[in-house]
Amino acid sequence: MVSDSKEKVETHSTGSAQVDQKVKEKDIPPLEDDLEEMELDRKRHLNVVFIGHVDAGKSTTGGQILFLSGQVDDRTIQKYEKEAKDKSRESWYMAYIMDTNEEERVKGKTVEVGRAHFETETTRFTILDAPGHKSYVPNMISGASQADIGVLVISARKGEFETGYERGGQTREHVQLAKTLGVSKLLVVVNKMDDPTVNWSKERYDEIESKMIPFLKSSGYNVKKDVQFLPISGLLGTNMKTRVDNKSCPWWTGPCLFEALDSIEITPRDPNGPFRMPIIDKFKDMGTVVMGKVESGSICEGDSLLVMPNKAQVKVVAVYCDEDKVRRAGPGENLRVRLSGIEEEDIISGFVLSSVAKPIPAVTEFLAQLQILELLDNAIFTAGYKAVLHIHAVVEECEIVELLQQIDPRTRRPMKKKILFVKNGAVVVCRIQVNNMICIEKFSEFAQLGRFTLRTEGKTVAVGKVTDLA
Ligand SMILES: Nc1nc2c(ncn2[C@@H]2O[C@H](COP(=O)(O)OP(=O)(O)OP(=O)(O)O)[C@@H](O)[C@H]2O)c(=O)[nH]1
Ligand SMILES: [Mg+2]
After folding, report:
1. Ligand 1 centre and the CA of 49: distance in Å?
2. Biased composition, Basic and acidic residues: where in the chain (predicted)?
3. In tens digits, what is the pLDDT along the chain, a chain of 470 residues?
4. What's the DSSP call for residue 277?
5. At 143, phi and psi to the nearest 5?
């Protein structure tokens, strides 16, 4: 059953670990101009976010991917094993590949989104390892908003699937957020299949799959087209680079993780659309460098662009993709772009690097269709409700200034009656106001820049899409 998968998903080792430092990305090797220039686009590029409840095994699985693709040597693993043991966290050593901060290693919990790269035959992947703990959902949102596809990691260990899946567990919250934030395809990996309470049990696997399917459907995923399940052990690396053998698991005849990742297809973005790159971070390095993912259009050295909403005219001095300087980059790429014509202090994350001919709209008010998930203490949702708006890289206080219509969730049509308030589960059209100008798009035109979440006191209370710009 192992078939030719090994050959098919041969990875390209670079000899050294490619996990970027997390202590902001400023510690990444300096952007030297003598880096070899390369033309990209030989392979497609996909951003994949690892999501799921705390301790499901996201960092372990991410670390194992790097190990299996030859990017972490045995000596480093031995060092991590020792370090993990010293911290009484023996089994955490694989997670240490992704969890690079001391705090993360001591607590055994990811805090900041880890970032790493690996390649298969057809695809260059950027892994974004999101934290599962509920305190760090804003970091998870920023990771998911950069992703094209998601790997939802679920622990099959007795009791752990249940806790993650409960109301208030992050399995649910992450799925809903991922969908809203534009993660169009999901691989659901049922992890810890090696655990003694699971032991590659088909029954347990089927139970998890059958409970997840209705929930994924209700979150808006087309389970037949956009979702694929598979069992793995992230810790042991089983069914990851090569298929699980018949002895460990006689019933699995599907693909291994690398094959599944390799074969995911997503709708190509338009490389000729107007340029849009939300800025997620910035720093000084021989000028001003901004970081972000290209959501539409292409960028070339020498381009004139606008930083919106402050309409600052800038020139593109250099473009870097991962560690490489490139002349041109298209949609989906995570870039660092060196700009002239603007100071670092004049940029805030959430600003958008944008085409001059068709700049992104900047507004302080917009209309949106919202799905209310769960209000704090079952509060009611009325005009005057305040929350924190997360839309692409923007985080901004907002106020609901007017409720316009309630939508019947069954018919998806507006209901006739006038509304003053709604409760959990309702779908409403409303007008939202922010204090500072933000750059957004209508969902129907640029889904990635038109979907958002509302959070209060650290909880996601609603997900929504922009229907009109006021
Ligand atoms: N038996 C077994 N244990 C696993 C497996 N994958 C992860 N674990 C263990 O689960 C614990 C949590 O793993 P992490 O990789 O840190 O989980 P995470 O999802 O990244 O957790 P957060 O970052 O805190 O959300 C560690 O003790 C791992 O060794 C697996 O495949 N099998
Ligand atoms: Mg983690």
Report:
1. 16
2. 1-11
3. 333 332 233 333 333 344 544 433 334 344 444 344 444 456 888 999 999 999 999 999 999 999 999 999 999 999 999 999 999 999 999 999 999 999 999 999 999 999 999 998 889 999 999 999 988 887 888 788 778 899 999 999 999 999 999 877 899 989 988 887 778 899 999 999 999 999 999 999 999 999 999 999 988 899 999 999 999 999 999 999 999 999 999 999 999 999 999 999 987 777 889 999 999 999 999 889 999 989 899 999 999 999 999 999 999 999 998 778 999 999 888 899 999 999 999 999 999 999 999 999 999 999 999 988 878 877 889 999 999 999 988 999 999 999 999 988 667 788 888 888 888 878 899 999 999 999 999 998 888 899 898 999 888 888 889 999 97
4. E
5. -65, -45
Please state which of the four CATH numbers 1.10.3470.10, 3.60.110.10, 2.40.30.10, 2.60.40.10 is assigned to the domain occupying 362-469. 2.40.30.10
pTM equals 0.77
Q: Which of 91, 173, 204 to mutate to test the pocket of ligand 1 (most atoms within 8 A of CB)?
A: 91
Reply yes or no: is the peptide bond before residue 30 cis, omega within 30 of 0.
no
Among candidate residues 391, 363, 216, 171, the one with its CA nearest the CA of residue 295? 391
Please check whether the two domains, 276-355 and 362-469, share a CATH topology. Answer: yes
Collapsing DSSP states into helix, strand and coil, what is residue 253?
Answer: coil
Strands 362-372, 334-340: parallel, antiparallel or unpaired by DSSP? unpaired
Task: Choose among 414, 270, 437: nearest CA to 348.
Answer: 437
Distance, in Å, from the CA atom of 6 to the CA atom of 243, rounded to the nearest integer, reads 9
Residue 323 to residue 224: CA distance in whole angstroms: 37
Fold classification of 4-14+42-263 (topology level): Rossmann fold (3.40.50)
Specify whether the CB–CB gap between 332 and 148 falls below 8 A: yes
CB of 192 closer than 6 angstroms to any ligand 1 atom: yes
Are 50 and 151 in contact, with CB atoms under 8 Å apart? yes
Q: For 422-450, give the DSSP string.
A: E-TT-EEEEEEEEEEEEE---TTT-HHHH
95 lines ligand 1 (CB under 6 A): yes
> Ligand 2 center to residue 225 CA distance, Å?
28
